[in-house]
Amino acid sequence: MTTSHDRTAGIPMRLFNTLTREVADFGSANPPEVGMYSCGPTVYADQHIGNMRAYVFADTLKRALDWKGFRVRHVINITDVGHLTSDADEGDDKLEVAARREHRNAWEIAEQYTRDFKADLMRLRIIEPDVWCKATDHIGEMIRFAEVLDASGWCYRLPSGLYFDTSKDRDYGKLARLDLAGQQAGARVEVAAGKRSASDFAVWRTSAPGEKRQMEWDSPWGRGAPGWHLECSVMSIEYLGPHFDIHTGGVDHIPVHHTNEIAQSEAYLADGLPWVRWWLHGEFINLRGAKISKSTGGGILVTDLIDRGYHPLAYRYLLLQAHYRSQTEFSWDAMDSARAGLRRLVDRFAAARSTPAERLGGAAAEHLAAFDRAVSDDLNTPRAVAAAVAASRDDRLTDGELTALAREFDAVLAIGLADLSPADLDLKRSDVAISDEEVRTLLAERNAARAARDFARSDQIRDQLASVGVTVEDQPGGVSTWRWT
Ligand code: AMP
Ligand code: ZN
After folding, report:
1. 278: Cβ below 6 Å to ligand 1?
2. Nearest residue CA, atom 21 of ligand 1?
3. Residue 48 and residue 471: Cα distance in Å, rounded?
4. What would the pLDDT profile of 405-458 be if each residue is shown by its tens digit?
5. Does the C-beta of 228 come closer than 6 Å to ligand 1?
6. Which residues on neighbouring strands pair with residue 185, listed in sequence order?
7. Cα–chain-centroid distance for residue 172?
8. How far is CA 252 from CA 203, 275, 311, in A?
9. What pLDDT, on the 0 to 100 scale, is given for residue 186?
10. Does any ligand 1 atom lie closer than 6 A to the CB of residue 205?
């Protein structure tokens, strides 16, 4: 579809970089390719709707970059070992704790919560990453990485493991702008015995004598498990190369996890270059003023939304109405308003949908330009949604223009403007794993990919469906059938 507004030239994509604390024009090292790594979930429990905000943010960013003409290669990890009950080196591994709580095997727990997480991604129309990687599949690489750090003098050994000596890194804490002197003086942390500084962190955790853990491996530092931060450094470098363009996560990752990823990666690469140029962080969604979190019992799930009759995309719409760098508040009233707002929007675009897309004329092209300006302005989704609302209310636009605009808007927002009907927003069935309608939408997308000979995308969709229990069979003549397995 040609339009008189060219979104791939003209308005530059501007983003806020936590490293510089500035909004600047985004550029990739190797345009149009963009390497992007998003810290993924720790699969010891259900991911609540707070966690899902981090992935809706990463997905919207990726969609926006693709829409602006970049080609994003996206990697998300699955943390199935290494993350302790605190983000620092305190407590036990979250998976081991979950295994004791549920009287189950840690591996099974990881598998189940990974499957459930992927089903939620689909419900929120989050595109699957090009690469999924899980920590336990990369233990050998992590040990080799830690050996390089150890051999080049960055680490010291304690009975509890191998620790990174942060005092050796002059730049330590540059992302979080940590006041290390103040932090040391006021340290409330129960520092692992023998740690030289509170900020030093475990690269490898050696199991205590006599301790038997479900997930442990032999290493030069004894039997044990990798430190949490190590997996992200190792896997991102493995799948995106030593330096890549964007690293995302939640704001809670800034002071410890990402700070430590940077320290060990720059020590490992030892080329004097910043490891990753762009660091983007998403803010929290709160419930009654406090961060939604599983530890405080506020763990509302996407399936809970469905049980109450909300389409998951009403939640995506609610999230997009806040800028990713602002905190936002969840409530059932806010869900009602989001559903009502999305229904009004979908209503107009659905009514126009039977008319084929047309080239955009003056007024329609202006709406697209307004949308582009919003998206390009540090991913200002509240303004982008407002641009879609303005277009839906403008009676100068033809139905064909609205059909074309719905596709453009939805390429970034993914809130069903191009395919949902208002009635779809009221769910009747409770606890739908994935609706037949969602399966059909994905199959249509897969058929289009096959017709365009984009077999990578078509395989990706088949795998995505398989991960939620749908088997796709390609019949002769290009027809595909599907069934629940
Ligand atoms: P975790 O599984 O605890 O490592 O968290 C996974 C991701 O969810 C991290 O990027 C967190 O920043 C993010 N997260 C957790 N709670 C919230 C919340 N209430 N709002 C937004 N993001 C959250
Ligand atoms: Zn990470």
Report:
1. no
2. 284
3. 27
4. 999 999 999 999 999 999 999 886 444 456 777 788 888 888 888 888 888 888
5. no
6. none
7. 25
8. 20, 20, 28
9. 41
10. no
